[in-house]
Amino acid sequence: MAEREKRPRPAPTPTNITQPFWDAVNEHKFLLQYDPEADKYQFYPRGLSVHTGKRNLEWREVTGKGTIYSYTETVIPARGFEGEEPYLIAAVDLEEGVRVMSLLHNCASDDVEIGMAVKLCWDKLDDDFEYFAFEPDR
Amino acid sequence: MINPLANKDIAIIGYGEVKNVRRSGRTTYDVAAEATSQVLEYTGLGTKDIDGMATVLPSSEAGNNFWSNYLGDHLGLQTSWIQTTDIGGASMPGNVARAAAAIQSGYCETVLSIAAATPTTRRVDDQRSYRSEFRNPTGIQGPPGAFGLIMHRYMHQYDLKFEALGKLAVAQRNGAVVNEYAVEGLRKPMTVDDYLNARMVSTPLRLLDSVMPCDGANAIIITTTERAKKLGVKNMAHPIAYSELTNFNVHEQLPDITETGFSIAGPQALEKAGMSTDDIDMFHPYDDFLIAEMLQLEQIGFCRRGEGSEYLTID
Q1: Cis before B285? omega within 30
Q2: Contact by Cβ (8 Å): A46, A25
Q3: Rounded mean pLDDT of B236-257?
Q4: Which candidate from B203, B250, B255 shows the least CB-CB separation from A73?
Q5: Rounded to a whole number, what is the distance in Å from the CA of B259 to chain A's nearest CA?
Q6: How many beta-carbon pairs under 8 angstroms link A with B?
Q7: Final residue of a structural domain among A8, A36, A61
Q8: With 70 as the cut, is the pLDDT of residue A2 above it?
Q9: What is the DSSP string of A27-48?
Q10: In terms of domains, do A71 and A119 share one?
Q11: Quick one: what percent of chain A has pLDDT higher than 90?
Q12: Distance from CA of B106 to the nearest CA of A (A)
């Protein structure tokens, strides 16, 4: 029997809303939508500000630094991650006041803890596309 | 507080239920038809006595933007009011409230509310929005991963005893053992140790914390209490209060993920009914993951926030 082919890691399909975000990610920059009236950021990218309902959003580059709000170690892999288990996922509170979830690299399962300082890093999905991840900010 | 259900003028007069099966090979329409036929037989009504229909949007039919129309056509229902509700496991109770409002407004008098899904035979749902860009590519193991995050955060803020969750798992399994409609493979007893020794899916969430998809259906008929009496119905249940909340904390960019809409909808429903948790003898939470049941107990007010483990392990 032929060996089961490993499915590719799912890549996002940029939309008219998220295209600037993904263009920036591919240049290793992380942009957030900022509502100047509310003086607040939001994540994920939307077609209006959830704070004021206005389409007054500006893209702003963030520091990429934050702390772990929660985490989980994935033992049964998600689709496209077969063979990589176990791996860590973290929900991270960025300094700008939004929460972002992704893979946590370069960290042993015994070392991860809530409140730990992390920073953004980047995963190559294929020749054309990268995705954001986190690693400890030591 | 306005409570349109206070005077008990709405009645649920019958139910039908299909045995839950993994990979039944059946269509959603077929399991819906079986549940409908049962509830009609139970109530003695015919398809022409139904003038309203409410259903839920299952992952097995989510690609059809005329789903309720097709389902009503399959079941032989001509209706003056029709509704698809897509709030997941809350859709059927949500439909009781929606049907009651439609009946009280005069749009219809007798509503068939039906939940039918065959996701282990066919899945055609396509959830875009943040899921395809900001969830699936991260590698998180779907809902078990999300609840793993919630459990670790809960453990950071409060005390979580896995023995308490195990006790919940055993209580539910005991229910399945005596329920002929439960998935057959799960109709055997389990122990707290079975729960504690179950394999991890997404830490600290175990396999036996988790919901399991299956194929099945259930249906109820809702009408006015007046009509129920005219029909000579002897057994009827009156819904007495309802509250719901969708997209809790949506404006908050750093929400407390251990807090849910139950903290608002739960106490509100009790207040509408003029009751407290002390008046409740039987509780049917939504039971996708064990931690979700504990959060519901806490947030509806059966115990205080963070004291769910203690509450569940009182002998």
Answers
A1: no
A2: no
A3: 97
A4: B203
A5: 14
A6: 112
A7: A61
A8: no
A9: TT--EEEEETTTTEEESS--SS
A10: yes
A11: 90
A12: 35
Please name the residues between 21 and 80 in chain A that touch chain B, using a CB distance below 8 Å: 40-44, 50-51, 69-80
A37 and A82 assigned to the same domain: no
Band of residue B3 on the pLDDT scale cut at 50, 70, 90? very high
Q: Residues A113, A134: one domain?
A: yes
Q: What is the CATH number of the domain that holds A94?
A: 2.40.50
pLDDT of residue A5: 63
Question: For chain A, how many structural domains are there in total?
Answer: 2
In chain B, what is the straight-line distance between the N-terminal and C-terminal CA atoms, in Å?
37
Fold of B129-212+244-312: Peroxisomal Thiolase; Chain A, domain 1 (3.40.47)
Q: Is residue A39 domain-shared with residue A81, that is, in the same domain?
A: no
State the fold for domain B10-121+215-230. Answer: Peroxisomal Thiolase; Chain A, domain 1 (3.40.47)
Task: Give a yes or no: residue A8 inside a domain.
Answer: no
Name every chain A residue with its beta carbon within 8 A of the beta carbon of B134.
12, 44, 100-101
Contact A73 B133 (CB under 8 A): no
Q: Are residues A69 and A133 in the same domain?
A: yes
In the predicted structure, residue B303 carries a pLDDT above the cut 50: yes
Q: Does A7 fall in a domain?
A: no
Through-space distance between the first and last CA atoms of chain A, rounded to whole angstroms: 47
**Residue B258, min C-alpha distance to chain A (Å):** 11
Range of the domain at A23: 16-61
Tell me the residue type at B89. G
Q: Are B202 and A75 in contact (CB under 8 A)?
A: yes
Could B202 and A74 be called an inter-chain contact, meaning their C-beta atoms sit closer than 8 Å?
yes
Q: Chain A partners of B139 at a C-beta cutoff of 8 Å? A: 9, 74, 77-78, 80-81, 84, 87, 89, 103
Identify the band that residue B147 occupies on the pLDDT scale cut at 50, 70 and 90: very high
For residue A3, pLDDT beyond 60:
no
- Same domain (yes/no): A34, A97: no
Mark whether A54 and A69 lie in a shared domain: no
Find tokens 């294929």 and name the residue: A126
Domain ranges of chain B: 10-121+215-230, 129-212+244-312
The pLDDT assigned to A1 comes to 41
ipTM confidence score: 0.95
In sequence order, the β-bridge partners of residue A135 are A119
pLDDT value for A8: 87
- Residue A61 makes CB contacts below 8 A (sequence gap 6+) with A24, A29, A30, A31
- Establish if A2 belongs to a structural domain: no
Residue B134 has pLDDT above 50, yes or no: yes
pLDDT digits (tens, 9 = 90+) for B111-126: 999 999 999 999 998 8
Among chain B, residues having any CB pair with chain A shorter than 8 Å are 130, 132-142, 144-145, 148-153, 156, 199-205, 250-251, 253-255, 257
Listed residue (B10, B80, B26) closest to B52, CA to CA: B80
